[in-house]
Design a protein that fits this description.
2 copies of one chain form a homodimer. Chain A is α/β, with parallel strands linked by helices. Chain A has helices at 15-28, 52-61, 72-75, 79-92, 107-119, 121-133, 138-149, 161-174, 205-214, 228-241, 247-260, 263-267, 276-286, 290-297, 304-316, 320-327, 340-349, 370-380, 387-397, and strands at residues 3-8, 32-38, 66-70, 97-102, 181-186, 333-339, 357-358, 401-403. Chain A folds into 2 domains: 3-103 and 184-245 and 328-403, HUPs (Rossmann fold, 3-Layer(aba) Sandwich), CATH 3.40.50.620; 247-322, no CATH class. The first copy, chain A, contains 19 helices and 8 strands. In chain A, strands 1, 2, 3, 4, 5, 6, 7 and 8 form an 8-stranded mixed sheet that branches. In chain A, strand 6 (333-339), helix 17 and strand 7 (357-358) form a beta-alpha-beta unit. In chain A, helix 2 runs antiparallel to helix 10 (228-241) and helix 11 packs across helix 13 (276-286).
């Protein structure tokens, strides 16, 4: 069976994603589509609008055959580590291909950029160092450094967010002993960061979430941008858990945590660089909402998403030394859902997989998975009782969704 | 000026307290009444119904001349440490006398008990050890051990909560180089733990709080048991901060903290003995309210109040090593309020005081006071915005109340 991997967040699954799944299947002639998906907290440092279980269900309903979780240690991360984790999981599942959406849509541009950087490594890295000294963020320095040597703009445009991610996928894949074959599909109509709707059927996940929260969690305004199965899954979530998830629901906990932690302990939290801890603690006391807090702490040096990720790490109490243990290699694959075909594929491959597959947490006492469990517990904390308790239980008791 | 010290919590100040202030003044012929009062978290491991500032105001309105804060490190403590802190602060303020309420009402009984225990120290301590092995709590073991040697019941009855506290005051006072003169007044009508009303004007603080929360924070049912000045102060609090304070408001934060802390770090929290941490973390996930959680974690070995205190320490992230630094001696006296006479007294004594007096926190960057600041911040966390922010600010900006 020919398999193609996708790297996704599905927050929530929308028509653009559906298009991508269908195109990927067609382009790569895949029998099986495998998605590695962020869990309850996402790459940009946000809680997912609905839990990973519901997002897995959306994916399966829309043509994905197998959904596995990208562990927190790789999901709530900058593009390079996010890509490393995703690509390695897809490879571990023995994918033949992987396929990502990009603004570029031309896979050759990515390989050319990779080669070009390798050839100009010294200049590239010197530029990065110089740029960092001007006080800009690391991702901006990488992008600007590349733009500086990419005089004619002949390679991929690394100022675009999906191109950046794609570049890191290509780079991570290139480091594998036997790389997968890479494909990219040009994104349709919507830009990644679009906050407003611009097409009649395709919209960015950002604008879909925005419309949902602005509409007081009503789904009417977003119906046209999501498959019926997504709509149904979101309606079910709302009736089962009372609310979608938004950073503001976690703000009291983040604020509380910033008030009770010592600055020494705060410095141990993953990705916090010296000096930031005092700023965070001071501003926590002076802010009445997450939005206000973020506006108060942002600087040129830290990107908005990095600060949001740091906030997630504080919320989940993820420490530097804990992350270090998890980063070297993937330790497990957590299965969220599968179709009949996905199950067949997995049965076929199972005995050769390099990591254990976790189907149900309660029967898998692995120390490495503890961070994901904690993240799931804290994600549930954003809900009120009795919804909170029922989401707690999910994490342990839920077997992977089976979609026939 | 002749001064008499009281050790109080005023949660809230009621007619029984008023009676005690008046009796103490009369009995000791005092010019100045000084109260050392728990801050925002109390001896029994509970948030105070209203903040320390409002409780200080209540006390001043009802005849107390000077209110100082018993630091968290001594307030959220078992009777012995609570008494040590209180007595030492009163002594530091150069009180001539101190006066406490008790079920006994006879000061000689307390001294006889103290002497009797000293004479029978060996038997007494052996009994305690034996009793502890049966799995009962330390306070119960102390009480039972005393009862075992107090055959004829000729000394004070140490099964009564106010007698126990009184005994520890007498003991702590006895260890001073020049002890204060001790007085006790028999408590009128209400028992410490009474949950229902039994008199027409005097009720326990417990029953007053219960009626307040049952009545949906209405004060109508408690009017007859509190002075008008307390009623007014409570009404003001409600309009200024939107709500009184109850453990259930802190439950989501306690639960959150128990979910994100590692069991190793939890074991570092003050007063947690090995093994308890796992029980707390397991039950946090399975409980939907503080009440339910407490019912699930209680054992014979830990008293209810000790478990509540442990919960407060987890909430405030108070660690064993941090408490150790604060326990040896009083480091400061924090002034909450004074009458004209109280101010005169303080001016008169100020130059001879063994510790600095903190009038306003913003001008006093003492490391020892940080735990009190943290406790105040976390106390404010029980309120919703915008009330939370305004209570945060109080802690730094509020000068002591001056009541003329």
């Amino acid at each position: 069976m020919k398999s193609t991997g996708l790297i996704v967040e599905y927050n929530p699954f929308h028509n653009g994603h559906l298009h991508h799944v269908e195109q990927a299947r067609q382009l790569t002639n895949a029998d099986v589509i495998i998605a590695v998906m962020s869990g309850n907290f996402l790459q940009r440092g946000e809680p997912a609008i609905v839990s990973k279980w519901t997002r897995a269900k959306m994916a399966l309903s829309a043509g994905v055959d197998l959904v596995v979780e990208l562990p927190y240690a790789f999901a709530v991360q900058h593009a390079k580590k996010f890509a490393f984790g995703s690509i390695n999981i897809l490879k571990a599942l023995d994918c033949d291909n992987f396929c990502f959406g990009s603004e570029s849509g031309d896979i050759d541009e990515f390989y050319q950029a990779l080669n070009f950087i390798k050839v100009n490594q010294v200049t590239y890295e010197e530029n990065v160092k110089k740029l960092m000294k001007t006080g800009i963020s690391f991702p901006s320095a990488l992008t600007n450094s590349f733009t500086m040597i990419n005089h004619q703009g002949e390679f991929v445009d690394l100022t675009k967010p999906n191109n950046i991610l794609g570049f890191h996928y290509i780079e991570a894949n290139h480091e594998l002993i036997t790389p997968m074959k890479a494909y990219t599909i040009k994104r349709k109509n919507a830009n990644y960061h679009d906050k407003e709707f611009s097409s009649s059927t395709i919209a960015s996940a950002t604008s879909i979430r925005k419309a949902t929260f602005e509409g007081n969690q009503s789904l009417q305004k977003i119906e046209q941008y999501i498959p019926d199965s997504t709509l149904k899954a979101m309606e079910e979530y709302l009736s089962e858990y009372g609310s979608f998830h938004h950073w503001e629901q976690y703000w009291p906990f983040l604020q509380y945590r910033l008030l009770n932690i010592s600055s020494e302990d705060l410095e141990e939290i993953y990705d916090i660089e010296e000096g930031l801890e005092h700023r965070l603690q001071k501003m926590a006391k002076e802010s009445q909402s997450f939005q206000e807090f973020m506006n108060k702490i942002k600087t040129k040096r830290y990107t908005w998403t990095r600060l949001q990720r740091i906030c997630v790490h504080i919320l989940t109490n993820t420490k530097k030394n804990e992350m270090k243990k998890l980063h070297d290699k993937i330790q497990y694959i957590r299965l969220l859902g599968m179709t009949h075909k996905g199950r067949e594929y997995l049965n076929h491959k199972k005995k050769d997989l390099p990591f254990p597959i976790i189907s149900k947490l309660s029967s898998y006492p692995n120390e490495f998975v503890q961070l994901d469990v904690r993240a799931a517990n804290i994600y549930a904390q954003g809900l009120k009782e009795p919804y909170r308790s029922s989401l707690f239980k999910m994490e342990y008791a839920q077997p992977p969704y089976y979609f026939n």
